[in-house]
Automatic annotation (TrEMBL):
<keyword id="KW-0472">Membrane</keyword>
<feature type="transmembrane region" description="Helical">
    <location>
        <begin position="12"/>
        <end position="33"/>
    </location>
</feature>
<dbReference type="InterPro" id="IPR053150">
    <property type="entry name" value="Teicoplanin_resist-assoc"/>
</dbReference>
<feature type="domain" description="VanZ-like">
    <location>
        <begin position="22"/>
        <end position="141"/>
    </location>
</feature>
<feature type="region of interest" description="Disordered">
    <location>
        <begin position="170"/>
        <end position="189"/>
    </location>
</feature>
<dbReference type="InterPro" id="IPR006976">
    <property type="entry name" value="VanZ-like"/>
</dbReference>
<feature type="transmembrane region" description="Helical">
    <location>
        <begin position="127"/>
        <end position="144"/>
    </location>
</feature>
<dbReference type="Pfam" id="PF04892">
    <property type="entry name" value="VanZ"/>
</dbReference>
<protein>
    <submittedName>
        <fullName>Glycopeptide antibiotics resistance protein</fullName>
    </submittedName>
</protein>
<keyword id="KW-0812">Transmembrane</keyword>
<feature type="transmembrane region" description="Helical">
    <location>
        <begin position="70"/>
        <end position="90"/>
    </location>
</feature>
<keyword id="KW-1133">Transmembrane helix</keyword>
Length: 189
């Protein structure tokens, strides 16, 4: 299959997504998994929504700050995971499900990693807020961006309209040959 300028643009877009994804994960890892020197540590929160209710009891400004931090910490993954995947022709619901599942697993890995870090506390509400932030970022950005890229982004990012045709023709190419088989050998009595 020949690579056109539109195909190269998608490859560069995918590479940029991978680099940004790794950079964001490194930043989040540093932020959430570094030891903190604190005089005391609260107990782990394993009851869903208990921490959110406690945040809401602190007043609207403090609650918005704390809940906003939880929503925004991993929200870029909602855009960066599909960007690193580089798929333009995909079901929006399948993309959403894959992205949210991967983001929830990353959030859970961070929370589990915090169990061994001094000064860091496991909080199930953090995982819920992180996953919600990922889902919201994905819903707000990815479908619109994919539609724009599929249309060819007439505003100047290059003409990718032929990409769908190239992908469809690539799928319809003839197979490479028969599947190899292993000859049957009789079993001795």
């Amino acid at each position: 299959m020949r690579h056109s300028s539109g195909g190269r643009a998608v490859i560069h877009f995918r590479a940029a997504g991978t680099v940004l994804l790794l950079a964001h994960l490194l930043f989040v890892g540093w932020l959430t998994l570094r030891p903190l020197d604190v005089p005391w540590v609260t107990a782990a929160n394993l009851q869903p929504f208990a921490g959110i209710r406690a945040d809401l009891a602190l007043g609207p400004v403090e609650a918005a700050r704390r809940i906003g931090e939880g929503l925004l910490l991993l929200a870029p993954l909602g855009v960066l995971l599909p960007m690193a995947g580089g798929r333009l022709l995909v079901s929006p619901w399948a993309s959403m499900a894959r992205t949210v599942a991967a983001g929830a697993l990353i959030s859970m890995a961070i929370e589990l990693g915090q169990t061994g870090v001094p000064g860091q506390v496991v909080d199930v509400d953090s995982m819920l807020l992180n996953t919600t932030g990922i889902a919201l970022a994905h819903l707000l950005v990815v479908p619109v961006s994919r539609a724009r890229l599929r249309r060819g982004n007439r505003a100047g990012a290059g003409d990718l309209s032929h990409l769908g045709h190239e992908l469809r023709s690539f799928r319809n190419e003839a197979p490479q040959g028969a599947t190899p088989t292993i000859p049957r050998v009789g079993i001795a009595p």
